[in-house]
Amino acid sequence: MADVATVFNESITPYAPGPRTDAVPPVKRIVVVGGGTAGWMTALLLANSDYGPRLEVTVLESPQVGIIGVGEGSTPWLRGFFDGLGIEESEWMPACNATYKNGIRFDGWCTRPGYESYFHPFASMLDNMTMTQFVGNVHRRLDGEDVETHPDRFFIAARLANKGLGPRPRHDFPFDVWYAYHFDSNLLGAFLGRKAVERGVRHVVRHMHGTTLDARGDIAALQLDGGETLEADFFVDCTGFASLLIGKALQTPYVSFAENLFNDAAVAMPSPVEDGAGRPLMGQTVSTALRHGWAWKIPLSHRCGNGYVYSTAHCSPDEAETELRAHLGLLDDATPARHLRMRVGRFARQWNRNCVAVGLSQGFIEPLEATTLLFVQRTATMLVKALEKGDLGEGAQNAFNEAINDRFEGTRDYIVTHYKTNTRTDTDYWRANAANVKLSRPLQQLLHTWLARRPIAGGLQQGTYGRGYPIMSWYCLLAGVGLFPDAQGTQPASAGKLCHDLSAIDNLLERSAANFPEHRALLANIPPRPTESSLQLYLW
User: Fold this and answer.
1) Are the CB atoms for 270 and 88 separated by under 8 Å?
2) What pLDDT score was predicted for residue 498?
3) Catalytic position from the list 28, 101, 195, 438
4) Residues 131-157: what's their mean pLDDT?
């Protein structure tokens, strides 16, 4: 059985700072335009780089522009971000009302009996002991045998989430698990801002109303209120959907994903934390299919974050708010609601001239898989590596843009698959998603291979299709919604084939889960991070 890194299908190398050097950096002054989580994450990574002491990093934050502040979930890569900066969970998590996240539960996306709900787990070293059985059963089910294929049965992360357990085991338990976080995004942005200033980042609070380009077409300076200007060698656009630098100033072409992903709006509101005697704190994001989109539920330590992501072509904002309130049981107007519009797609070039866009300004794929901060972290890390290498030429820019755009395409395909494989027929919205033929060629090939009863693992490992998501995730999604050909024609498991002992898997996972603390107890006493993780975190 392959190890977890192979299971995750990441053709990447471990992130580590390059060798320290006294060489003059290719740029001396960098201005990050926009604060919030994206701006401050980028500033921290720049300041923490090898060239950080020789860079002047400035974050320009407008007092007139607020932050969106509803992205409250992450992927496991955020753990590596904090570890790399040497920031303990015991410091930042309480400051941001954060909780642990074992994965995502999808409720109501499928109507096939037995597959109405499934859990998308984050990986564990324990999965090496159950992945073979899961994938083997899936292949047998594709061949028409009636065997257990629901992913919840095979992975420790689902057990931890369902039992309300935290993902950090006792120190003597030799298996690490990947986990992510839930957090208050406003508080996280403020926390990162304080850390960045402590580490030498300059913070300028002024409103930018324009840009000045030089004779080559590069950005030369930012025009600030009061007639002042702010000059730099390089600029990072963290201005959100406004994309003031990469879009407005540099006129970079935009690639829309509207024909692939229909959702273009969201309404968000908080609800009280589900507390009480005997009620566990569930370490999972819950994504529930509603009439014209899906609702998220994110448990924080002090409240629940909720929202409804929907398509304005199928539902008005007022209708969406009414449906979300009914879903939450918050029918009175005392609980405020925030309405947001989303632009789903990406810019053709994330790096254009002397500007790199990071966060919502570079592109956005709806929040179903909580990938926004992942793109922030990885784009900023790639920028740091380019600066450390000292090559800012056209070839480096093209390679940078190709790598990020490939990840956007791969992530888009994975999210589109959630909608394409739905079996709901109650509204035009869900019927249109199931009937959508605007699929990329790689995604068409992946689904065709699966429904033709052929293994998809080889194509995933080779990058033929499914880029950006590991083998484990693809098998969990497709098996989790019960996407098998000839669903009504299954036969009993072949007598001549060895059947996996599911009771042994149950026993292994139950005994393993006993080594993990209750979620609330873990939050009350967060241990220091290990000096050496038993599960290497990777970046692009």
Assistant:
1) no
2) 56
3) 101
4) 94
